[in-house]
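// run 5 | inverse folding | seed 20
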């Protein structure tokens, strides 16, 4: 009888401890608490540079931001609820219709690694102390919006973007940009990213390329052909599989004939399926008041 009671106590203790451990484990796996964010309660000032523009980063408009689980350097900051918009460009057009003391209210979002978000409103005053901008009557309200969407993934990254045109020469990093121009005309837009080559690449990609070559399971869209042609030969062969193997095994530290990412226009100048030459730069003529360019970002080597 005594042994039976002792066994029952042991089992009860074991069950209770195990249940508690499982409960604690499940709680540790899910972070649902948003970060704590605080914006300045007064307007920060950003002056328009000699280029005619001022670039503002969302993280610079935050007084403080902390999270229980995510380190400060891993928090993400962006404008208008758009994860792609870590910065904004303000030009002379921003001053149209504003008094010299009227700040702009900007919505800032902070996001932790679990996707929890918090928001605050930060006032920003755009000034022109260098008197770069012409009078209101001399400002042309032309703008260009650039949107980059990763192919088959929702990952966020910073691409290197440069825009050069009449009275304008600006380089910045990001995945989305709203740029205002003083003058219409022709502009050269360049986008590139050539880091982290192994990102998204595994032996599963080699397997899929082999199945395509053998005709067992051929690729279904142009982007897969671009991603698989890692040696830039305008064909998919065993040489592409060999290049990926060398990268995975550490024989090479990057693809030797292509950048890690390739950017393809979506809503203008679509690529020719029979031509494997892809540009990093495009010349755009700004005629309309609002021009939007959309690009697909293709990770080379990642065909899944």
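// decoded
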């Amino acid at each position: 009888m005594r042994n039976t009671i002792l066994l029952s106590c042991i089992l009860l203790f074991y069950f209770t401890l195990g249940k508690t451990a499982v409960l604690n484990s499940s709680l540790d796996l899910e972070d649902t608490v948003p970060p704590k964010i605080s914006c300045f309660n007064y307007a920060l000032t950003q002056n328009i540079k000699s280029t005619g523009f001022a670039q503002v980063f969302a993280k610079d408009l935050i007084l403080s931001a902390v999270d229980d689980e995510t380190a400060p350097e891993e928090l993400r900051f962006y404008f208008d609820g758009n994860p792609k918009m870590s910065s904004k460009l303000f030009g002379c057009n921003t001053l149209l219709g504003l008094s010299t003391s009227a700040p702009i209210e900007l919505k800032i979002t902070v996001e932790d690694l679990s996707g929890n978000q918090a928001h605050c409103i930060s006032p920003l005053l755009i000034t022109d102390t260098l008197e770069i901008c012409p009078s209101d009557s001399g400002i042309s309200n032309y703008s260009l919006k650039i949107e980059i969407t990763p192919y088959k993934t929702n990952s966020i990254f910073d691409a290197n973007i440069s825009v050069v045109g009449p009275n304008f020469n600006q380089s910045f990093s990001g995945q989305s940009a709203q740029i205002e121009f003083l003058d219409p005309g022709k502009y050269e837009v360049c986008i590139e990213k050539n880091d982290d080559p192994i990102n998204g690449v595994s032996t599963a990609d080699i397997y899929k390329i082999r199945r395509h070559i053998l005709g067992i399971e051929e690729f279904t869209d142009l982007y897969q052909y671009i991603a698989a042609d890692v040696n830039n030969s305008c064909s998919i062969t065993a040489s592409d599989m060999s290049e990926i193997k060398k990268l995975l095994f550490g024989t090479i530290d990057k693809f030797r004939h292509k950048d890690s990412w390739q950017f393809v226009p979506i809503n203008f100048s679509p690529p020719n399926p029979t031509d494997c030459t892809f540009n990093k730069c495009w010349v755009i003529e700004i005629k309309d008041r609002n021009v939007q360019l959309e690009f697909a970002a293709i990770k080379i080597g990642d065909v899944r």
